[in-house]
Design a protein that fits this description.
heterodimer, A: 639 residues, alpha/beta, Flavocytochrome C3, Chain A, domain 1, 5-stranded parallel sheet, 5-stranded antiparallel sheet, 17 helices, 21 strands, globular, B: 252 residues, alpha+beta, Ubiquitin-like (UB roll), Fumarate Reductase Iron-sulfur Protein, Chain B, domain 2, 2 domains, two-stranded antiparallel ribbon, 7 strands, 33% helix
Chain lengths: 639, 252
């Protein structure tokens, strides 16, 4: 069986494609919707909004999350804002400009039709969120306020202090709770998906483990929607929540869903630097800080003077110097790579020299401390709590960290994977951000997929019929359950000498060094050699204490790390095959004379979708060619 | 620094628990409190013992999953700080630290330091939302909202749902949690149509879940990692009174 990549992009001019798709969709009449069941895995922006909206339409929804409440999903940690082409600022924004910026920001590796739809829907998201009571920042006249963000020259970002993700998630969570109360959604917190069940070639259910009792359970449905987020935790240290993991999408991949562009990872430029070996995660400082903060390093290598004693003429505001038109607001990949270059060349600051300054002195003298406090107060507090330094008086120290994964399961225009009935939304899919995501676009995509796309496209899938009745009694469930139970038993039985975390840290370090901000063919080959060895050692020597029939956090981690190992290998394989640099994927061999990413559009203007062919077989690469009809392929320039 | 921990261990919901003593050696003051527990857990795992179960996720002070009573104080000694953002520099070498779960009648212990807080979700289910079905919304700028109201709504909406207010309250009341949501939505024009029905239903649900009543001790506000003001409880009580007196407000 070989998979076929049919993107199902509607015909017609780009601005009519979504309208046309909606018109051509098959519909499920209201009475029949009640007869259909849908499983949603994950309760972040994408999952909660999808579950709530599908329930409003009448579908019977089961929603799963591993946290103790759907409100904990990691969307909650997004700080800066959400983009929308409202043009409330009258600064020349439009749906086409948001589309253009996103395609360019993604370094021409996204599917144009999907991005255009995203830009189109962006305006509805703001309306929906306001109606739900999301307390966006407002001007004195009572209208919505906007701020600017990296990779754009217009102000189109809506925000709620530094807690935009929290407020949008709570909006979606409250809509979800409303539907739980109405009986349309059954919620399963502290429950983790451990396998996908495929019957007659269609996704018909999942196998879960109740994280409190350890019970392994079967859930059947007419369609499955994965909204389980990204896989940045492959790197161990990332800005992801500790529980964020790739298990749902990886298990689906192993059941036949192609995995697209796994090497596209985003390294966020403004995170708090690592302080020691004990570090368990990295903390992001919103990109919105770059609106008012200026990035610099000392001109003199190894300058040990306190920052406030370094005079202006001895500072190198390197982003403003190299990119005069975008300055500190260059996209994330560019900002991160530049920070790395500065530190690698000996200009870094702070312990170990892995940091650059983000300085608010000029903004504070221009606007006053009160205005800065109003804009970023909670971020400054968070920085001070972690570092014990006061950013109102001492510049912040920042360094890039793994933040977001643009890659994910391959989906067509209807957000369906290569397994019929399996849909993938939000960060878990690959669709809209190409090789680099612009700031304030993740929230936009999660909610566009969840509120406005999947509730319609799922109907189109269900209305086409051909679904035979399947219950949890079907033999495919028993087989999948037995597999899950055997794997759990094996992890518990090993009783080796090393903890799960020690393996995870080692894998993360390896990936950061070999498949991080700068990649070489040599390093990637080494990683492809080392990862299977480490994985083999893991299964032989991991120590998972406790039992499987109760709350066991070591066991939860152990299963996730086992999947991280397998995905890490595919990431390196994808990074090695892509002999070009684009967005977050920077191959040292492929750069312009002044160190910018050098794409090869002749050879690599495609989506790389990998097919799993078994644990002992090489994955097979399938290509979806990308056509750029609206935005002309050019080298990105932010100068 | 070296510390002695006394930690609540409880194998399951229906099994009695007890305090166990652990030594935490070579702790860096730059570690977060949870990273200190990670270190202890690594040592326990290597020694073949079961690690201490504790809830946590984002470790950025926003998801609300971390909890812990630290020396009898919800989220520990630092004001306006969730446990995950508390750093060991707040302690001194040689300290003995008592670590317990958030305790309340409505928060049964699941294991060790993990408690079941789904009662808070059910309070939201009862009415903590604006019924705005997807797709029906007018333009975002159609209804201006005075900046003071939007800011005040945001102050209330900052609640992370951790339950520290409940754990800190001598009555085990969830009034601050409930009031924050009642006020967030009640301060906005979009929240007006359901305002009275919302407060009645949420307060009723809070009572049904076994949370205690509010007698304005004010401990909740002290423990709240987002420093949400107790003024919102007064506001909720006003709304509740008005809703109770107004005819025709169905409770269910």
């Amino acid at each position: 069986m070989s998979i076929e990549l049919n993107a199902r992009i509607p015909e017609g001019p780009i601005e009519r494609k979504w309208e046309r798709a909606k018109f051509e969709m098959k519909l499920v009449n209201p009475a029949n919707k009640r007869k259909h069941s849908v499983i949603v895995v994950g309760s972040g922006l994408a999952g909660a909004s999808a579950a709530a909206t599908m329930s409003e339409l009448g579908y019977r929804v089961k929603c799963f999350c591993f946290q103790d409440s759907p409100r904990r999903a990691h969307s909650i940690a997004a700080q800066g804002g959400i983009n929308a082409a409202k043009n409330y600022q009258n600064d020349g924004d439009s749906v086409f400009r948001l589309f253009y910026d996103t395609v360019k920001g993604g370094d021409f590796r996204a599917r144009e039709a999907n991005v255009y739809r995203l830009a189109e829907i962006s305006v509805q998201i703001i309306d929906q969120a306001v109606a739900q009571g999301v307390p966006f920042a407002r001007e004195y006249g009572g209208l919505l306020d906007n701020r600017s963000f990296g990779g754009a020259q217009v102000s189109r970002t809506f925000y709620a202090r530094g807690q935009t993700g929290q407020q949008l998630l709570l909006g979606a969570y409250q809509a979800l709770e409303k539907e739980i109360n109405a009986g349309g959604v059954t919620m399963f917190p502290r429950t983790e998906m451990l396998d996908l069940v495929v019957v007659d070639g269609r996704a018909r259910g999942i196998i879960t483990r109740n994280l409190v009792t350890g019970a392994v359970e079967s859930h059947a449905a007419d369609a499955v929607v994965l909204a389980s987020g990204g896989y940045g935790n492959v790197f161990f240290l990332s800005t992801n929540a500790k529980g964020s993991n790739c298990t749902a999408i990886w298990r689906a991949h192993k059941r036949g869903a192609a995995f697209a562009n796994p090497c596209y990872t985003q390294i966020h430029p403004t995170c708090i630097p690592v302080s020691g070996d004990h570090q368990s995660k990295l903390t992001l400082m919103s990109e919105s800080l770059r609106n008012d903060g200026r990035v610099w390093v000392p001109k003199q290598k190894g300058d040990q003077r306190p920052p406030n004693q370094i005079p202006v003429e001895e500072r190198d505001y390197y982003l403003e110097r190299r990119y005069p038109s975008f300055g500190n607001l260059v996209p994330r990949d560019v900002a991160s790579r530049n920070a790395k270059e500065q530190c690698d060349s000996g200009h870094g600051v702070g312990p170990g020299g892995y940091g650059v300054y983000l300085d608010f002195r000029d903004a504070i003298s221009r606007l006053g401390e009160a205005r800065i406090r109003e804009r970023y107060g909670n971020l400054f507090e968070m920085y001070q709590r972690i570092t014990d330094e006061d950013p109102y008086h001492v510049p912040m120290r920042i360094y890039p960290a793994v933040h977001y994964t643009m890659g994910g399961l391959w989906v067509d225009y209807n957000l369906m994977s290569t397994i019929p009935g399996l849909h993938v939304i939000g960060e878990a899919n690959f669709s809209d951000h190409g090789a680099n995501r612009l700031g304030a676009s993740a929230l936009m995509q999660g909610l566009a997929d969840g509120y406005f796309v999947i509730p319609l496209t799922i109907g189109n899938y269900l209305a086409q019929g051909g679904l035979t009745p399947v219950t949890e009694e079907h033999p495919a469930f028993a087989v999948a359950r037995a597999g899950v139970e055997a794997r759990t038993a094996r992890l518990l039985a090993t009783r080796g000498s090393r903890t799960v975390d020690s393996f995870h840290r080692e894998l993360g370090q390896l990936m950061w060094n070999k498949c991080g901000m700068a990649r070489t063919a040599e390093g990637l080959r080494e990683a492809l050699d080392e990862i299977p060895r480490l994985r083999e050692q893991y299964w032989r020597d991991v120590n998972v204490p406790g039992s499987g029939d109760s709350l066991n956090q070591s066991l939860e981690k152990a299963g996730r790390v086992a999947d991280h190992f397998e995905l890490a290998e595919l990431m390196c394989r994808d990074a090695l095959h892509r002999e070009e640099s684009c967005g977050g994927h920077f191959r040292v061999e492929h750069q312009t004379p002044d160190g910018e990413a050098l794409r090869d559009d002749e050879a690599f203007a495609y989506v790389a979708a990998w097919e799993h062919r078994g644990d002992d077989a090489e994955p097979v690469l399938h290509r979806e060619p990308l056509a750029f009809e609206q935005v002309h392929l050019t080298q990105r320039s932010y100068k | 620094m070296n510390l002695t921990l006394r930690v609540w261990r409880q194998p399951g919901p229906s099994v009695p628990g007890r305090l166990e003593r652990y030594e935490a050696a070579d702790i860096s003051p730059d570690m977060s409190f949870l990273e200190m527990l990670d270190v202890v857990n690594e040592q326990l795992a290597v020694a073949g013992q079961e690690p201490i179960a504790f809830d946590h996720d984002c470790r950025e002070g926003i998801c609300g999953m971390c909890s812990l009573m630290i020396n009898g104080v919800a989220h520990g000694p630092m004001k306006g700080t969730a446990t995950c953002q508390l750093h060991m520099r707040s302690f001194t070498d040689g300290d003995e630290i008592l670590i317990e779960p958030f305790r309340a009648g409505a928060f049964p212990v699941l294991r060790d330091l993990c408690v079941d807080r789904t009662a808070l979700d059910r309070v939201i289910q009862a009415g903590g939302f604006i019924s705005a079905r997807t797709g029906a919304a007018p333009d975002g700028n159609a209804t201006p909202v005075a900046k003071v109201d939007a800011d005040r709504a945001m102050d209330a909406a900052a609640c992370i749902g951790c339950g520290a207010c409940v754990a800190a309250c001598p009555n085990g009341s969830a009034s601050l949690f409930t009031a924050a949501k009642v006020s967030h939505l009640g301060l906005l024009p979009q929240g007006q149509p359901e305002r009275l029905r919302r407060v009645l239903r949420m307060v009723d649900q809070m009572d049904q879940e076994g949370f205690g009543g509010c007698t304005l001790y004010g401990e909740c506000m002290e423990a709240c990692p987002k420093e949400i003001s107790i003024d919102f409880i007064t506001r909720m009580n006003g709304d509740y009174l008005r809703a109770s007196l107004s005819a025709g407000e169905p409770r269910t």
